[in-house]
Amino acid sequence: MASGGGGVASARPFDPNFQHSDRERWICIYPAYINSRKTLAEGRKIPKIKAVDNPTPQEIKEVLLHTGLLLGIENKIYPREVDRNVRGRIRVQLRNDDGTPANVQFPTRHSLLEYLGETIPKLKTRSQGVVSQQQTAASSGSTSGGKKNKGKKK
């Protein structure tokens, strides 16, 4: 599932001579890093208040595409993940070969993770889901209006 290549990208052993543009030097982002339902021990890396409820690799990819950073998607599982069906790791080039940030808005890995935590809840897919949940709750609440006085004696 790696983007940009025709086959499966095999990781080379780390070499200190790798440049920042080499894929092995790109940072890894797993959805667990910004998942508000995870504890710090389970892999969350940002404060719970800034985290997102169950983010997907597709949502992370969608947000990162708009930042202009180079990225790749890999079909990997986070080692601390209990549910082995949750797959996906995003690699992002955070620095240029000269060591300067690729995007001045994100000088560190932590700043990028916090940006993801702020931006993913604003996605249309997230906001449409919230509206539909509110509509179903409102419609189900109006159907049970006749049982308000249940248990009261007259």
Descriptive report:
The chain has 154 residues and is an alpha+beta fold. The chain has three helices and three strands. It has a three-stranded antiparallel β-sheet with strand order 1-3-2, with helices on one face. The radius of gyration is 21 Å and the shape is elongated. The N terminus is likely disordered.
Topology (SSEs and partners):
Layout: E1 27-29, H1 57-65, E2 71-74, E3 89-92, H2 109-119, H3 124-143
Antiparallel strand pairs: 1-3, 2-3
Which properties best describe this structure?
elongated; alpha+beta; disordered N terminus; 154 residues; three-stranded antiparallel beta sheet; single chain
Brief overview:
This protein has helices at 57-65, 109-119, 124-143, and strands at 27-29, 71-74, 89-92.
Question: What structural category characterises the helix and strand content?
Answer: alpha+beta
User: Segments where pLDDT lies below 50 for 5+ residues?
Assistant: 1-9
Query: Helicity range of the residues?
Result: 25-40%
Q: Got a strand count?
A: 3
